[in-house]
């Protein structure tokens, strides 16, 4: 299979503007521990799993209860998400285009199941995802390949025939490792280039035809065939 079979979307910072809410939640918990969050903390916070950020706060503060910190982070984040999470520019249009074309798409998130369900039941309630994958659904979450491999397997398609849409370094690394073509639409952190990564400034610049072309170009590059122009 060399054509586009499915699109796999990250949630936080990609479809919904929740990365800033996660940062605010981490600021709140860090302050309780006597730590002021700064830009130097960003790589350990933005796009990271709850457990990773909790481990960072343990290292930064000398606290001794990573599980308690993880629970506090989830609670603070959940409270903000429940108050409303706006969709990112272009997200609704692209999702509608995929649905009308009958192309399968799923949500693949590093957030806990409770947060995913809250967003999918709120801002994304109208979106016909085939299914959702949360951090609770795989043994390892991003940056490991497990979430995207799980999604491709559940759809019954090769990961190489999927485009993963991501906004963070960890998310892009996860999709890369799974074998997906990665469309990066950065939000709070820069994402380095990679051989199977394409970049867009906004989802407003992304179309189904463009996604199909990127998958064809990747397959052609791997086979040594000329890539499509235009």
UniProtKB/TrEMBL annotation:
Membrane-spanning regions, if any?
Answer: none
Q: What terms describe the molecular function in GO for this protein?
A: hydrolase activity
Q: Does the keyword Hydrolase apply?
A: yes
| Entry keywords, A to Z | Hydrolase
The record's annotation in InterPro entries points to: HAD-like_sf, HAD-SF_hydro_IA, HAD_2, HAD_sf, PGP-like_dom2
Taxonomic superkingdom: Bacteria
Alphabetized Pfam families for the sequence: HAD_2
Checking SUPFAM superfamilies in the record gives: HAD-like
Q: What is this protein called?
A: Hydrolase
UniProt source species: Streptomyces vietnamensis
